[in-house]
Design a protein that fits this description.
The structure is a homodimer.
Chain A: H1 7-22, H2 26-42, H3 49-64, H4 71-94, H5 98-108, H6 122-134, H7 141-150, E1 154-157, H8 163-171, E2 179-183, H9 194-199, E3 207-210, H10 225-233, E4 236-240, H11 242-248, E5 256-261, H12 265-271, E6 278-282
Parallel strand pairs in A: 1-2, 1-4, 2-3, 4-5
Antiparallel strand pairs in A: 5-6
Chain lengths: 287, 287
């Protein structure tokens, strides 16, 4: 997905929020904002929004000398999700369609996104989960199930820390031997890295790889050759989050299921879906 | 008032809204947005926000070849306000404190501001007036009355079209012989020019001058020598609107009453007042 003119004021707002999150130094805050302005003035609108997120957060890490400003917040939301794990697993077990509820919860976990807002509270995350438990997923789950059954190699692209614990609930409902889980190669915002996958206990269930890149999405040409090979060899991609959607929505891959929450008006308009809705969106069904 | 980092995402949002208001050509919309980005990357934060507004709207007029993109909207809101004039004049006459109600209505008229949002409807403007009729002004009106009585020369700085009809209601309560009304020297957004003052019938009541500039505020050093002289010779300035406040809040003039609605969180924080509140704010009381 390309960037729209409406993304630009939002990049600036996100940059300022992120700068304030990462540093209390007003000079650093101003520097990063001015750099994002200069970068955006020349940016190619054919680039996807996560390309700008990548630039913002690389510079923030350089300026602050902090390689992982969101480390604490990642741990906090991993821990929050872990306290909910056992209870939700029980609910999934008892549900009339366990996979359907696990899908819903995995998509809901996508609310834990500090790229969209640096002010998310644990209480808000809990409320989102409660809401999800009441609302069925309006999507073609049969197609998803068939694809899982027919595929030999499934690549699961994680998105955020915290959220990755909810991914575990879904992965537990899937044939784990077929699955490789991919995380970011380096810290960016609160996106999940290998440490978060381990905290979620996913290393005991599935193969885990890093994608070799630090974009808050999957810019395939920037990822490692190993990741690219996994991506192209997979019969099915399960892609979590809006950042992975924005970077992979135009991919040539024939079978990507995008699981995400619609978090901004631009994406809502792009896919003609309500803001805030939960999506199980197949790439070739809409192309 | 200087610009804050929080103003910058807002400048971009305003530029995009204004571009969409002024032209349906996406290339022009993109051009103006990129220019505002480049300008903002280098801007001096000691400049007041209307300096950026001035730049945005100058370039929009150049790009579109339209010298007054807001002409129709100015006429529409002048007409709306004129239809309300007789009724409101009656209410002011019957009010226990006529000047107090006239002040309130003049400040409320400040809601008619296409710089803040290009989507204001007539219905919203009507609702604001209705709300104001119910809410007393929490301000030192005695000081204002005394200043009017003691001053020999009062300079009244108008802000927007539509709003200027509400200014007439206030001016009718003041000693008109002492008053000079100043309007913008050139069209910018929906700010009032000489034509709007005439539409409001103010040329029959008071002397009217142009300020010789096209900023959506009063950048005193850019105004005509005639205007500057009037400004410095006046014993009292009545300054309407947030743009005039942002450009004159640090003025050396000893006696400025700022009448405006607090329309953004940055100004609210700057003066420590609630967003949306009506202000009758004396410069030297707060300095």
């Amino acid at each position: 997905m390309k960037s729209y003119l409406d993304c630009i004021p939002c990049f600036l707002r996100q940059a300022l929020e992120a700068a304030r999150f990462a540093t209390s130094n007003p000079t650093d805050q101003e520097t990063i904002l001015r750099e994002v302005l200069a970068f955006s003035a020349k940016m190619n609108l054919n680039d996807s929004p996560p390309r700008v997120g990548q630039m913002i957060h690389r510079r923030l890490r350089e300026l602050t000398g902090n390689e992982d400003p969101y480390l604490q917040v990642k741990q906090k939301f991993n821990n929050l999700a872990l306290t909910m794990l056992e209870d939700l697993r029980g609910k999934i077990k008892k549900a009339p369609d366990s996979l359907e509820l696990a899908l819903r919860l995995a998509i809901t976990g996508n609310v834990i996104d500090f790229g969209i807002s640096a002010n998310l509270t644990e209480e808000q995350a809990r409320q989102e989960v409660e809401k999800t438990l009441q609302t069925p997923l309006n999507a073609n789950i049969k197609q998803f199930k068939q694809s899982v059954n027919h595929s030999k190699k499934i690549l699961y692209l994680a998105d955020n820390a915290g959220e990755i614990v909810f991914d575990r609930l879904l992965i537990e409902q899937l044939p784990t031997k077929k699955i490789t889980l991919a995380v970011r190669g380096n810290p960016v915002i609160n996106d999940a890295t290998i440490a978060d996958a381990q905290t979620a206990g996913l290393d005991l269930l599935v193969e885990i790889i890093e994608n070799g890149n630090d974009a808050p999405g999957t810019i395939i040409e920037d990822c490692s050759p190993q990741f690219q090979q996994k991506f192209h060899q997979a019969d099915m991609i399960i892609s979590k989050g809006q950042g992975n959607f924005e970077t992979l929505s135009d991919s040539d891959h024939q079978n990507i299921f995008f699981l995400f929450k619609v978090k901004c008006p631009v994406v809502a308009r792009h896919i003609n879906a309500p803001l805030g809705s939960l999506q199980l969106y197949h790439n070739k069904e809409h192309s």
